[in-house]
Recover the amino acids of this structure.
């Protein structure tokens, strides 16, 4: 059966890697970008991102296949295909926890919170806003441009989508399924970003007991606020702890050195294999511990016998946010809408697999383009805004000093 055959995933990964390799040869701009980003201290994590984002795509492609044949949206019966989605998201949360907690440990009170806030906004929204526009336009196109909800309610829907919630738009049932509901994870990321300074004051800056209590109350208030519509689940948030633990792990030279050994690489792959085959859910204690063990070894710089090093994999890592955010809509167009136009039966196994192959190549190409022409300029705009804000602060400080004299 397609939904349990792991070779389908293997073939999809190979096709994605080949597509990325061909793009590297055909587009010099990609090569130049990789040469610059190759200076990254955590190259192994950059490579891991590519596998994870594409894994979520494969996970949703299997869910879509099941839906087309049964009319039911449910997790794949295979542990492996179920974990390609859940386990990948858990590891993404660990990457976030690791990178930002590690930066906080390194910089301490010198951490630039303004730069952090600006960079997060300009990392998430430049690509998300066009996707959100596409979703709204698609809904109205499917409904023949008929406004079914009053304007005030539509405005509320727009606001909710801007904060990564996914209410039905204009009464279109399960609007979020147009993008495989992927934006639910962004709510958790935003909560982590907002809670980070408060958590830093509790665990790193070490203030008074009153400050600690107030910060803990603040974290709880954020937890309730961000999860206003749909409560944030604690077992999902626990994934971030694996990354935070890795930030402490790499500060122990003997642990870091062991994490780069061949033995550690074997243990990491075994932990990943057990987590992906023995469990149907990633966000329980045992699979999270196994995934955390896998992650701390990768965070140590282990490339898993070179699997995280190839340029094609690193490119998949660079475009991972585009791949993650866009794959649901690309999948919906290719396997649900296109067959209607071309009079194809997507429930036929070979028809579906053929469409999936085209979808894989198209996704990598589109994600590469959106990274180069939307994400990258967006991050650059964020840096320019930060520079402008700092210049304004300097000018204000200079003016204040002159007045004081």
């Amino acid at each position: 059966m397609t939904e349990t055959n792991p070779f389908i995933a293997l073939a999809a990964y190979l096709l994605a890697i080949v597509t990325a390799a061909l793009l590297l040869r055909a587009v010099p701009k990609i090569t130049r970008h990789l040469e610059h980003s190759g200076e990254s201290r955590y190259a192994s994590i950059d490579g891991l991102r590519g596998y994870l984002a594409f894994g979520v795509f494969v996970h949703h492609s299997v869910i879509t296949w099941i839906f087309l044949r049964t009319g039911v949206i449910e997790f794949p019966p295979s542990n492996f295909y179920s974990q390609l989605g859940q386990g990948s998201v858990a590891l993404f949360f660990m990457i976030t926890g690791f990178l930002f907690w590690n930066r906080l440990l390194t910089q301490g009170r010198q951490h630039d919170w303004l730069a952090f806030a600006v960079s997060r906004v300009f990392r998430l929204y430049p690509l998300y806003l066009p996707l959100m526009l596409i979703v709204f336009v698609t809904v109205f196109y499917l409904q023949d441009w008929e406004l079914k909800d009053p304007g005030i309610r539509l405005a509320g829907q727009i606001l909710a989508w801007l904060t990564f919630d996914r209410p039905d738009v204009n009464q279109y049932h399960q609007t979020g399924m147009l993008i495989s509901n992927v934006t639910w994870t962004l709510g958790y990321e935003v909560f982590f970003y907002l809670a980070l300074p408060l958590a830093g004051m509790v665990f790193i800056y070490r203030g008074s007991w009153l400050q600690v209590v107030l910060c803990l109350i603040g974290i709880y208030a954020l937890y309730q606020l961000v999860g206003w519509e749909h409560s944030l689940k604690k077992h999902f948030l626990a994934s971030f702890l694996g990354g935070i633990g890795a930030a402490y792990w790499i500060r122990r030279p003997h642990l870091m050195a062991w994490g780069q050994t061949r033995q550690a690489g074997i243990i990491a792959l075994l932990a990943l294999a057990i987590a992906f085959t023995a469990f149907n859910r990633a966000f329980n204690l045992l699979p999270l511990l196994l995934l955390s063990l896998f992650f701390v070894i990768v965070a140590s710089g282990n490339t898993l016998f070179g699997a995280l090093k190839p340029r094609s994999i690193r490119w998949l890592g660079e475009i991972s946010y585009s791949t993650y955010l866009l794959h649901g809509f690309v999948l919906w167009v290719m396997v649900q809408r296109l067959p209607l136009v071309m009079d194809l039966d997507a429930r036929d196994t070979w028809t579906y697999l053929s469409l999936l192959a085209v979808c894989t190549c198209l996704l990598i190409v589109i994600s590469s383009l959106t990274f180069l022409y939307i994400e990258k300029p967006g991050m650059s705009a964020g840096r320019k805004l930060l520079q402008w804000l700092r210049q304004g602060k300097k000018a204000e400080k200079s003016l204040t000093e002159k007045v004081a004299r």
User: Anything to note?
Assistant: The mean pLDDT is 93.
